[in-house]
Amino acid sequence: MSLPKIKTVRAYFAGGATADKAAAGGDYHDQGANHWIDDHVATPMSKYKQYEQSRQSFGINVLGTLIVEVEADNGQIGFAITTGGEMGCFIVEKHLNRFIEGRCVSDIKLIHDQMMNATMYYAGSGGVVMNTISCVDLALWDLFGKVTDLPVYKLLGGAVRDELQFYATGARPDLAQKMGFIGGKMAVQWGPHDGDEGIRKEVARIAHYRETCGADFWLMLDCWMSQDVNFATKLAHACAPYNVKWLEECLPPQQFEGYAQLKKQAPQGMLITSGEHHGTLQSFRTLAETGIDILQPDVGWCGGLTTLVEVAALAKSRGQLVVPHGSSVYSHHAVITFTNTPFSEFLMTSPDCSTLRPQFDPLLINEPVPVNGRIHKSVLDKPGFGVELNREGLKRPYHH
Ligand SMILES: C[C@H](O)[C@H](O)CC(=O)C(=O)O
Ligand SMILES: [Mg+2]
């Protein structure tokens, strides 16, 4: 059967340090003022007073959004978005293009392997290069779906469940509960530099939402790499009476021994999770071996859909769950095919969490949001990832 070839790849950016305004979209941390996601969230930089109140103050939004488009010689176009901005554009247009153009639209694994191996000397195991490879990989899957007129989840082997059910990440678990989500995950606001008082403040917040949301609603805490093993262990035990379901990303990504130790020291039944800042299958293997409960790759950062599928198989072989970091349609199409993803994340991007704004708004058109905390598989029944690109304000800084 003859399939079209890829004629050209193009990379654009929006937002980030070289743009004149915030652009959200693929960089969901690039939001306007007074957004919960920037309001005193604990980070590895919080120990410096001047960077404690706002994550944008230390530069969480400098990269901006990367958009990759691949065009086949029959004129069909696939695209994807992620965090990566102008730096990602350089990598695509000046390096990765050689592995993409002229290939058949189904050569996704070959292109992925060549991108991974050709960048190994400067990529590391997570960060902007891995984000960029992920974006190309997702754009290729989107194109393949469009050319074959199939949704990506069918290309992966089809759905293993009829609907996805979601927990919500945001500042208001009580509002998430009213919207039909199965749980609410909050960002911690205090860290090791705040000592025991910080732990008391976190526990007070959890106690309040346990009281408000009732005994069975899931409550989780996301620590965004801000802690050490000692603080995380104390926080875990202090939260245990309030039935916190999991503690997420307590430590910097590469502190594998720390994760293993934390898992051993955490209260029985409380899950330890991590993975959103990891890239490459090898890095996830080491993370899985720490014995944590849930691996949380971001499909736009870990190496793409091709890597995510491998990570899910790795986790499955070890009896671990893989619940990707919220990345909208890019993870919906994957996880509906995974037997070890019983629920998914929806990241609240409305400033006060009171409405359901799509995660990659305003960049994606027709991006689905959960209804009553759920998305039925029929919503995904469109070619590729089933979304269109809003091209307003996109810039193409490099050409090849
Ligand atoms: C809320 C977290 O600090 C971060 O912005 C998002 C995240 O890590 C998650 O959704 O998980
Ligand atoms: Mg997280």
UniProtKB/TrEMBL annotation:
One matching Pfam family: MR_MLE_C
Miscellaneous comment as given in the Swiss-Prot or TrEMBL entry: Reaction proceeds via a syn dehydration.
Binding positions for substrate per the UniProt entry: 29, 55, 345
Entry keyword annotation includes Cytoplasm: no
PANTHER family in UniProt: ENOLASE SUPERFAMILY, MANDELATE RACEMASE, MITOCHONDRIAL ENOLASE SUPERFAMILY MEMBER 1
Lineage: Bacteria, Pseudomonadati, Pseudomonadota, Gammaproteobacteria, Enterobacterales
Quaternary context: Homooctamer; tetramer of dimers.
Purpose of the protein: Catalyzes the dehydration of L-rhamnonate to 2-keto-3-deoxy-L-rhamnonate (KDR).
Keyword line: Lyase, Magnesium, Metal-binding
A GO molecular-function descriptor: L-rhamnonate dehydratase activity
Residue positions binding Mg(2+): 222, 248, 276
Family that this chain belongs to: Belongs to the mandelate racemase/muconate lactonizing enzyme family. RhamD subfamily.
Superkingdom: Bacteria
Cofactor: Mg(2+)
Annotated site, Transition state stabilizer, chain positions: 345
Protein's organism: Pantoea nemavictus
Catalyzed reactions: L-rhamnonate = 2-dehydro-3-deoxy-L-rhamnonate + H2O
Site for Increases basicity of active site His, residues: 298
Record-listed E.C. numbers: 4.2.1.90
Domain Mandelate racemase/muconate lactonizing enzyme C-terminal, residue spans: 163-269
NCBIfam families, per database record: PRK15440.1
Name of the protein in its database record: L-rhamnonate dehydratase
Comment on bound cofactor: Binds 1 Mg(2+) ion per subunit.
